[in-house]
Design goal:
Length: 287
């Protein structure tokens, strides 16, 4: 059992929770203009990790027929039968239960919305079968995290978490488009849908860059509306430079560094935004 658990944790890339988690706590900081209590931090963390882990494991189950055919994904745990489908399904249930239980410990609104959150994060796995806008749906799945954190701490919804969530939607959709460029030929072969499959790699990379420019603009507006200070804007400038670097790593004829663009650069983007916002709000105060 422990061997299978280790394989599943590697399979869902538990360490990549770093993509959405910083935005979750960035929303928490904006909601309270300070740091949540240790209990609130713990329950939000459990909810976030549970939801993302369930979603990733469910995606691997649903995509197994395709992963077994795709040369890029044939080495994954399920196609190689390093873990059973039953164990992965149990892991999905456990992750989903963790989200619902954590939400119940935060407030009633969070509990009532937890089934909707699960429907979004699990439902994404089916979208490539019928729409090339699947990247946006993935963005909505991660963009719900900052909205959920706000609801968990304040029991309502305001403009700030919705704007932050929209920025996350554009950011995630943009880098998922880059990642999907690796599978254009396979997606066409098996009738899966994506922006690169529909419009070609060159157009897809331009769409990705446009999404990321919109993200930067929306974050700038959010920082202005929330009266954040210089440190937050410096962080945003640094993020803009990282995004420019990300798009220099990939070209229509050269996707060899797509993994670096997808994993490494975007991990730094989310952490950097959170750190600069946290310093701004907790140390220097809003400007």
């Amino acid at each position: 059992m422990f061997r299978q658990l280790r394989v599943v944790l590697e399979m869902v890339k538990i360490e990549h929770t770093v993509f959405a988690l910083p935005f979750t706590f960035m929303s928490a900081l904006l909601a309270l203009r300070g740091w949540p209590s240790p209990a609130q931090v713990g329950w939000i963390l459990l909810a976030m990790v549970g939801a993302r882990s369930a979603a990733m494991a469910f995606n691997r189950l649903v995509d197994l027929p395709f992963d077994a055919q795709n040369p890029r994904t044939q080495g994954r745990a399920l196609p190689r039968r390093l873990v059973t489908k039953g164990f992965v399904a149990a892991f999905v249930v456990a992750g989903s239960a963790a989200l619902v239980f954590a939400a119940s410990q935060l407030n009633r609104q969070a509990l009532l919305l937890s089934p909707l959150a699960l429907a979004v994060v699990l439902g994404y796995s089916f979208t490539k079968r019928f729409t090339w806008l699947s990247h946006v749906v993935l963005g909505v799945a991660l963009g719900a995290a900052p909205v959920g954190a706000w609801v968990a701490l304040r029991g309502d919804v305001a403009a700030a978490p919705l704007v932050l969530g929209l920025a996350v939607v554009l950011w995630v959709a943009g880098f998922d488009i880059i990642y999907s460029c690796q599978d254009v030929e396979f997606d066409r072969k098996v009738a899966l849908h994506s922006i690169p499959e529909r419009f070609g790699t060159a157009v897809a990379l331009r769409v990705s860059a446009f999404f990321h420019l919109l993200m930067l603009l929306i974050l700038g507006i959010l920082f202005w509306k929330e009266h954040l200070g210089t440190i937050s804007y410096l962080g945003l400038v640094a993020v803009g430079l990282l995004i420019a670097y990300e798009h220099r790593l990939v070209r229509p004829g050269d996707l060899s560094r797509a993994d670096t663009a997808f994993f490494t650069v975007n991990g730094w983007i989310s952490v950097l935004l959170f750190m600069t916002t946290m310093i701004d709000l907790l140390w220097s105060g809003p400007g």
